[in-house]
Amino acid sequence: MLREISTLLAKDFRLEWRQRAALGGLLLYVGSTVFVCFLSFSLRGGTPPPPAWNALLWVILLFAAINAVAKGFMQESPGQRLYYYTLVRPQAVILAKILYNALLLTAVALLGLFLYTVFLGNPIQDAPLFVANLILGAVGFATTLTLVSGIAAKAGGNGATLMAILGFPLMVPMLLLLIKVSKNALDGLDRSVSQQSLLTLLALNMLVGAVSYLLFPFLWRG
Known about the structure:
mainly alpha, 0% strand, transmembrane helix, Heme exporter protein CcmB, membrane, Cyt_c_biogenesis_CcmB
């Protein structure tokens, strides 16, 4: 299983490197969105207040995550998926996709946070908590959206639209928890205040990962 996951993970990294235009487009989206926010608030003579700063950051990261994960399964043809079916187990496929998307979204989130603080200031008072919450959010986006991407690709038709329809309702509870914890980090509250929310986020990530592991083989064979 581990060898299959590592092989599939290396394959995804090689494909991403060969299709650098898609990765460049994702980075351009994050950079240009941050710059537009900077221009909007600079015209008003300052930086956004912390609640607006926090909300805008998560909106940018959410749409970046959807754009990044959407191509995971939908860029593969049915023939490719049938070929993988003869070589590896479906559990290895979904775990490799989740791990790859988690690494990609973590890198994009950290880069987005860096650009965001450069252009729009840094009101964070508890940086370790904020970064930990950011990484937890990137992993949560990856686990949820990877499974949704697999469902959308298997359904055929306009997979991107179907992924958005299925993904947003699932992301809202997680997004509310992420915004709550990051607001606590912005305000410098004691970390015990955020402990329950962080445990809930961790439990959600583990639950979605377990559901993906158990149900993806049935989706794969469908």
